[in-house]
């Protein structure tokens, strides 16, 4: 940790937490658990807790409390200490036998003052004091049943989940998404007595809802803590409506202003709305193994940025589909395994072919160190070859323990290479290139007509056909890459055909995925009617139209704006000379 960075920032925060958890019950919410998962790993936390048994529990209303032999609890939370969070704290503590409670919040006291509607002038007078935290400490003692018991409330900025030394995500803000044009109506409805907004360009912090302002301030608080750790005086720049508001809030954030007065270094912080480049998120033009692993393997429950790796290959069990959860899944995050971390960074940084060869090299080196009877083979790396190397560790517990991280990444690679979705990857890429060419030569109506034959109900689909979620990915790609377009009769007719076909696809699904449940508002296929499906599709296309027009504002940046054409994957390209970049993202 000699060089300040996103990893040292996260580790420094968790060291403060680990100092408090000895022989405690530890309750974590999902975002903090994900920060721990990528930052220092749950093993470090369990070692810090110590004792014969380590109890880690999810922070939720029905969480099990502590018995008479468990007098200490530590709550590690990413959210504000008010409302439902405080009610959950009260419920857990009231049914427990705690005598010592520590509450760690990832949000600063200044944010809590904002959440409690304390005016800026009054908040300035409270500098150095923490009345919100002190009041909660009194409540904690009251809920424990004795005002002489010990309670602590402290702020530790557990903002980031460091995926790599240069890349960090913000799991607590995974749902924060840029504003679309249709949101203008909602903002105007929430402020009927004020001047009506005409476009996203007119949006500032005074136009946002209190909930969004508070969420934005929580993010700004964390970013300010990161800049303090890096020792920099930041200059904020933004592209996009919401990014502009966040950048302005960070620039005007009072604790940040005070910090900048003594900061020795300098840094530029650039905020960019995700809607300006959705092709990067939904396209298949990246030749990267890590991207494919994250795209095709199932999501790790409770996490936004990790996947489940099936570990059955390393066991003697032959599980059936109904009991597949008997074996705990592996994952990508290997915080305390240096060799596995090096392999993961290679998967992130190299092209697909080189990454697969790197997986083979690490497996061979691991097997050699354990004196396992490995049979070398040159040439192309195949899933079968990698599997044969992995199976060498199967009945060797010592070797499994020593190289568990490498084996998880190896199995993730094998399962990705053999996954049906990986076989479709090149098909996606070819079709995206065809769409790009058609957009440049023929226009939007022709592109939609090319898509139309791909919309097939589940009863007519084969394994090579596209399901509803894949169709949504293609639609998002098309509308994002085309940018602004002219509406005419042909386009209207083509779009109506696509909408009708998509409604039919939704209605004939035998089971709704979590994404389709969210889009349609129905928790099962039996509840999805034609009318509900039509409403959902209409709303979906309204969002697609907003996405298509999102990049129109980029033409304002004339010094770095270069118009794209049908040979490029994006509609606009920005040429910006950068020496060093730190990246954090609210989602991946």
UniProtKB/TrEMBL annotation:
One of its GO terms (biological process) is vesicle-mediated transport. InterPro entries: Sec1-like. It comes from the Eukaryota. This is Sec1 family domain-containing protein 2 isoform X2.
């Amino acid at each position: 940790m000699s060089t300040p960075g996103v990893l040292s920032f996260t580790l420094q925060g968790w060291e403060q937490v680990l100092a408090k958890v000895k022989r405690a019950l530890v309750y974590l919410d999902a975002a903090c658990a994900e920060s721990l998962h990528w930052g220092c790993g749950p093993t470090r936390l369990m070692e810090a807790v110590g004792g014969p048994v380590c109890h880690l529990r999810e922070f939720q209303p029905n969480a099990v409390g502590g018995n008479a032999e468990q007098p200490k609890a530590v709550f590690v939370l990413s959210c504000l200490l008010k409302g439902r969070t405080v009610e959950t704290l009260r419920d857990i503590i009231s049914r427990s036998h705690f005598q010592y409670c520590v509450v760690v919040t990832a949000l600063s006291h200044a944010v809590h003052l904002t959440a409690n509607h304390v005016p800026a002038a009054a908040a300035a007078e409270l500098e150095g004091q923490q009345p919100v935290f002190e009041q909660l400490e009194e409540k904690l003692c009251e809920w424990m049943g004795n005002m002489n018991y010990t309670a602590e409330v402290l702020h530790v900025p557990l903002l980031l989940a460091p995926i790599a030394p240069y890349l960090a995500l913000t799991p607590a803000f995974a749902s924060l998404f840029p504003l679309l044009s249709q949101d203008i109506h909602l903002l105007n409805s929430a402020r009927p007595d004020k001047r009506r907004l005409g476009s996203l360009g007119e949006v500032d912090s005074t136009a946002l809802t209190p909930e969004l302002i508070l969420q934005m301030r929580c993010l700004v608080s964390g970013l300010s803590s990161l800049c303090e750790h890096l020792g920099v005086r930041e200059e904020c720049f933004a592209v996009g409506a919401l990014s502009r508001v966040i950048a302005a809030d960070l620039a005007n954030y009072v604790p940040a202003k005070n910090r900048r007065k003594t900061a020795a270094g300098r840094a530029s912080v650039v905020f960019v709305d995700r809607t300006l480049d959705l092709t990067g998120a939904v396209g298949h033009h990246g030749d990267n193994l890590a991207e494919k692993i994250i795209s095709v393997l199932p999501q790790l429950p409770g996490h936004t940025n990790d996947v489940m790796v099936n570990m059955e290959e390393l066991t003697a069990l032959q599980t059936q589909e109904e009991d597949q959860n008997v074996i705990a899944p592996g994952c990508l995050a290997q915080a305390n395994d240096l060799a596995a971390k090096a392999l993961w960074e290679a998967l992130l940084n190299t092209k697909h072919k080189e990454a697969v060869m790197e997986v083979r090299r690490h497996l061979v080196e691991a097997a050699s160190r354990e004196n396992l009877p490995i049979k070398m083979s040159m040439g192309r790396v195949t899933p079968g070859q990698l599997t044969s190397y992995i199976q060498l560790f199967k009945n060797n517990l010592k070797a499994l323990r020593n190289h568990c991280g490498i084996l998880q990444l190896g199995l993730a690679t094998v399962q990705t290479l053999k996954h049906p979705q990986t076989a479709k990857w090149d098909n996606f890429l070819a079709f995206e290139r065809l769409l790009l060419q058609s957009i440049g030569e023929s226009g939007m109506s022709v592109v939609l007509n090319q898509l139309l034959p791909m919309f097939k109900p589940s009863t007519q689909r084969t394994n090579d056909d596209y399901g509803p979620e894949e169709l949504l990915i293609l639609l998002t790609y098309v509308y994002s890459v085309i940018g602004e377009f002219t509406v005419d009769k042909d386009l209207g007719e083509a779009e109506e055909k696509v909408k009708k076909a998509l409604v039919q696809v939704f209605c004939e699904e035998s089971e709704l995925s979590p994404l389709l449940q969210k889009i349609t508002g129905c928790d099962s296929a039996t509840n999805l009617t034609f009318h509900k499906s039509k409403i959902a599709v209409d709303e979906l296309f309204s969002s697609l139209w907003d996405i298509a027009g999102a990049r129109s504002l980029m033409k304002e940046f004339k010094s770095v704006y270069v118009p794209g054409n049908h040979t490029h994957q994006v509609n606009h390209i920005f040429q910006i000379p950068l020496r060093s970049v730190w990246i954090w993202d609210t989602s991946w």
